[in-house]
Predict the structure.
Amino acid sequence: MFQKNIVSDLLKIQYPVLQGPFGGGLSSAELVAAVSNAGGLGGYGAYQLKPDEIVSVVRHIKELTIRPFNINLWVNDTDDKAGNLSDAEYNTIADLFRPYFDELHIPLPDKPGNVNSKFEEQVEALLRLRPAIFSFVFGIPSREILDECRKQGITTIGAATTLDEGLALEEANVDLVIASGFEAGGHRPGFLHPAEDSLHGTFSLVRQLSEKIRKPIIAAGGIVDAKGVKAALELGASGVQVGTAFLACEESGASKEYRDVLFSERANYTSLTKVFTSRLARGISGSIAAELGNRFEVLPFPLQTTFMAPLRKAAVEQGKYSLLTYWAGQNVSLIRHRNAKALMADLSAAFEN
Ligand SMILES: Cc1cc2nc3c(=O)[nH]c(=O)nc-3n(C[C@H](O)[C@H](O)[C@H](O)COP(=O)(O)O)c2cc1C
């Protein structure tokens, strides 16, 4: 029987296995509860939600589990330029994507309106809701926010893509540090350097962070089974965060079409692209990302996401899935389980022998 470690103790869970939170509507209360009820830590990606939507989500999760769970936000959720995009800038970028809108017989969208950051108001809601755990990416919340979390007994988890970011999180006295290797599915969540310069693999990043900082390290990126968990622990991590393998489970917010792609031959190939959101993210490659590559201008975040939303919708409605990139980590071709309890049993076996 696994006798607890620093991470399971801090998070008050049975096994130091975190379900990676998913933005983009792919999280679900059912998945969070299934993972927490199986002894891990469920996580909900809430960065796109309004404060009242976060309240509803937390209420829903609490109906399904009495165990601790994690609510995740993006500290930097708006690029500086998102507030003042000129028509000329928009038209140049829109023209690049025009052939794909034409292919799907849909009009180019109008220039997206200005967007303000939601982070501060989301945090206000979160502090009132007091989830046991608050994890964040793309930065470090202010000292006031972190102090308030500590006062309220909310454990904090930050994500590092480089040693410098790990050191900054430790300096800010964040409780736990996720080592987010570039194998990971979804966005590269760094904040000190350009994403393109922060592409450390999980193997290197976990070693560096566990040698150089004292906060417990949670390895994320490319872990899909007990072998991966054992390797991460051997390298110095005290816990793991698993995303793609949980996304593939029936409890997640992923559609059937998304899960079918995760279990298809296409899953042998992932790549990093900025095409769909303008921030570098890993997914199962689609033809738009493959054709455009990464040497082009995109709209600032989150305007590119808004711009591409009708295209994504039309591609799905018309069954043209091959155009799209489906967020997933590099080891997606190795996933086996289709429900969270079975996956948790597989991952937690690593702690039992
Ligand atoms: C579809 C998708 C969306 C994600 N969204 C977020 C997010 O909003 N916040 C976050 O901290 N991590 C996010 N991640 C990263 C995961 O939480 C996790 O760290 C990562 O998936 C681990 O790598 P793996 O996919 O190889 O297991 C996302 C990952 C995926 C696949």
Q: What stands out?
A: The domain at 6-78+115-255+334-351 is CATH 3.20.20.70 (TIM Barrel).
